[in-house]
Design a protein that fits this description.
With about 170 residues, the protein is an alpha+beta fold. The protein contains 5 helices and 9 strands, in the order ββαααββββαβαββ. A hairpin with a 2-residue loop joins strand 3 and strand 4.
Amino acid sequence: MFWNLTVEDRLFEIRLLDGAEMLSRWDEVERMLRKAFDDAQYNDDGYSVENPVSFTRAGVDGALGPGIKHVIALGNGGLVGGFFCLPTEPRGDEKSCDVGWVFLTPDLPHPYRRGVLNEIMARGYQAVKNAGFERIVSNMGTAAGSAALTRYGFVHSPLPSTSNRWVKEL
């Protein structure tokens, strides 16, 4: 499934992929994740660039369960962003889900960033909502992610045992 998006004067393609389609792009996905998260300030002790890479790969390989999808954004033929590890097959009567990492490549010019991120987020939210989920409960991997994703409806909702807990009602 894909959608065309025009931001300013530039055309982007937004795609919803399954694990096999992500696997066919894995070298590029891993390279862009490393580029986006290499110098990040992480919210949890012990996190590094390996966390987004390994969690995304687990979603691609099926280790996170069936029905995991991934939204990618392509511009000029290459990957410029994504919203990964979106569950689309609830187990039983689950109403909450966790999701994976969101990113834009650092070299995506500023005039395009907001429009591309808006579309990535909207398509990711729609995928999990269409599956029957009512909310996303997740942690935010980076300080930049925490700041950016509050604009997309995530609310910091810590528990005594989990301070880095965020909720998005769908």
